[in-house]
Amino acid sequence: MKLILTLFFTTAFAGSVYAQANQPPALLSIKDADLKRDIFELAGDAFRGRRAGTADEMRAAVWVAQKAQEAGLKPAGEDGTYFQFFNINRTRTANRGTFVINGQPLALWKQVFPTQALDTHLDGAVTWLSTAADTATDLQGKIVAMKIVAPKPLPAAGMSLWGFRYTSSAIRQQSALLARRGALAVILVADETVESAIAFTGHNYEEGSYQLEGAIRGNGGSRQRTAPVILVRSAFEAVLKTAGARVKADFQAETFQYPSVNVVAKAPGTDPKLKEEYVLYSGHHDHDGDGNPVEGDSIWNGADDNASVTVGMLAIARAWTTKPGKRSALFVWHGAEERGLLGSKWFVAHPTVPKQAIAAVLNGDMIGRNSVDSAALLGTTSHKNSSALVGLAMTANQQVTKFKVDFSWDDARHPEGWYFRSDHAPYAQAGIPAIFFTSLLHPDYHTPKDEPARINIAKLAKMTKWMYATGWLISQAAAKPALDNPGP
């Protein structure tokens, strides 16, 4: 018994000494005032929502690079700069498009929404379908119109962007059925649910689709011959039902190539050998830009999504340069995340450091809202690729932040599919240990109400400290976190 107690206390003491020896030394460098100043600046209206492929995203990237330099980080992008540029292809419906019902023109992107970027030329009578039973008839070569029918199954209750998911599923299901019946074109009339989500949904149709340069374009950006699908506001149901109703439509697809950019910086490590390896901090600096107004506000600021992590990483940079770790720290602020994780996909394919030198990826997305005592960590259960990395994150939480950690969103059966919606995913799929820090969703997600004034600065600071403390433990460990499996 005496031996057992001696072993217990010896082990406990050794663990305590290890924990104390590896306590992150610069926590006091992460200051509420710095976080508040930076997020009000970056997520303010002056940057107009930082939409990928716009001058606003470029201005935000320059702002991040300047702040990174001020924090003491060294450039780690391409050609000795803080930047890694890449091209994205955008395919959209041109704004000169017209749509007329019985001689009445509808306002594009306000009353009528082409749901695909297709060259479309229509001039003919409308066949109104009152019920699903009408779709069983031969619709070959006809312009058909119909009220939106709720999709089956409905999106899971409480899902984010529920109205958008409802709209997308309904349009996909109905248009596929009508196209199989031979419809030349499909006009779908919004129901109450679709109307409630029209600001976000319409803005997405207006913006079109984005892909990395050279990527194979999906149907959303293809000019292949297919039945065009056009959404109209509910106010036009009656006129489409009128006997002899006619429509004329003229839409053109156009493709642009835009630059986007990752901001990449580093803080060199202190160990002669370990400094060749990197703890990679990951976030994204873009958001949704200037879109359809909601309650008079057209700027989708993206304060939590994801200015919160952008400024959190700057705070970590200040801490790291105050007291560098043994391993180096690499900071990657990705561009074009909201357009499909494009910046992180590009960096994984074209890393500015050797890919095998990346010890682990600590990604954050939305860390400034909800209870100050709770947080979520993904890459921990269904999608775990490194038990050692998860263990270090939980040790850091125990030492520093003591969050009640929610692991449920990492379940492969979770309806949100949250794990695959942020920038750690391309790294994990490339076989690099990766985890995802988040404080989860809230009602302002992807709305103009995601503004700096709604950020809980104390929560933002606490999440930032958790990410910093986890990275510090990785930087000091003798070995990189082991990989359990090659990727989810």
TrEMBL record:
Coiled-coil residue windows: none
Domain Peptidase M28 intervals: 262-468
GO biological process, one term: proteolysis
Molecular functions per Gene Ontology: metalloexopeptidase activity
The protein's name: M28 family peptidase
Keywords: Signal
One Pfam family matching this protein: Peptidase_M28
PANTHER family for this protein: METALLOPEPTIDASE M28 FAMILY MEMBER, PEPTIDASE M28 DOMAIN-CONTAINING PROTEIN
This protein's record includes keyword Signal: yes
Keyword Nuclease annotated: no
Position of the signal peptide: 1-21
Matches recorded under InterPro entries: M28_fam (IPR045175), Peptidase_M28 (IPR007484)
